[in-house]
């Protein structure tokens, strides 16, 4: 006996019409009729309600109806998959919200520090650009705006670029130091390069595309202005610390 027959049997025992049973289960009369003739099956929630209404166990209600059992098993598996998917989506949303929230807090922290140390916006076209000039050195930084972003921005740790006459340096995350040797800044420069250096102005590593002549020139140039670079890097590191706090 399938579940439709059992529903009909129990309904008749209770002397209920299809319309009356449909009202008790909050479904349409045609739905009850389709169950009883085997066109389709009630869902799990309704099966539990039928079990409670007729006072019979789920085991008795579902026993012998292999098609219904297979269908119910399939639905339960899909429900399990849906729950897992929802949990994963929920975790992703929480991580996304938390990450964006941290970025916005970081942004406000950086802007507060800039204001306290008298940095000013230096580009009317870009409100995220800030600068300050002290003792003949121009310092510049950039604060990424973190409103609502469908794609989270990468974590932002502001860099600071400093320029004093023909010397340009940059200090960024983990106090990584870079010296920019450029022809546009100094006509005596023979090779343009961005050179990663240590606190003493020495090259940390050579680039694979440097020729021997280029590397030798860069070392000599750094040595010539070593004292100035060391002092400028020291000041720029301190300025960056003003920003990040």
UniProtKB/TrEMBL annotation:
Residues 7-61 form the HTH cro/C1-type domain. CDD domains: HTH_XRE (cd00093). One of its GO terms (molecular function) is DNA binding. Keywords: DNA-binding, Membrane, Transmembrane, Transmembrane helix. The keyword Nucleotide-binding does not apply. The keyword Transmembrane helix applies. SUPFAM superfamilies: lambda repressor-like DNA-binding domains. InterPro entries: Cro/C1-type_HTH, Lambda_DNA-bd_dom_sf. The chain crosses the membrane at residues 81-99. It comes from the Bacteria. This is HTH cro/C1-type domain-containing protein. It comes from Enterococcus moraviensis ATCC BAA-383.
């Amino acid at each position: 006996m399938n579940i439709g027959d059992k529903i009909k049997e129990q309904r008749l025992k209770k002397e209920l019409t299809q319309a009356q049973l449909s009202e008790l289960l909050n479904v349409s009369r045609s739905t009850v009729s389709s169950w009883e003739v085997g066109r389709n099956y009630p869902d799990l929630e309704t099966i539990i309600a039928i079990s409670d209404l007729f006072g019979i166990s789920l085991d008795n209600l579902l026993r012998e109806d292999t098609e219904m059992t297979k269908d119910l098993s399939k639905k339960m598996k899909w429900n399990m998959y849906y729950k897992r998917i929802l949990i994963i989506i929920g975790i992703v949303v929480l991580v996304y919200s938390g990450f964006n929230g941290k970025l916005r807090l970081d942004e406000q922290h950086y802007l507060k520090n800039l204001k306290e140390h008298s940095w000013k916006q230096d580009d009317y076209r870009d409100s995220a650009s800030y600068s300050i000039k002290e003792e003949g050195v121009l310092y510049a930084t950039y604060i990424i705006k973190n409103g609502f972003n469908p794609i989270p921005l990468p974590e932002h740790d502001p860099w600071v670029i400093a320029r004093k006459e023909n010397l340009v340096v940059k200090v960024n995350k983990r106090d990584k130091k870079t010296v920019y040797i450029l022809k546009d800044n100094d006509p005596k420069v023979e090779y343009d390069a961005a050179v990663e250096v240590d606190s003493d102005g020495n090259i940390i590593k050579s680039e694979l595309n440097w020729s021997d002549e280029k590397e030798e020139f860069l070392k000599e140039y750094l040595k010539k202005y070593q004292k100035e670079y060391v002092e400028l890097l020291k000041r720029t590191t301190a300025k960056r610390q003003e920003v990040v706090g």
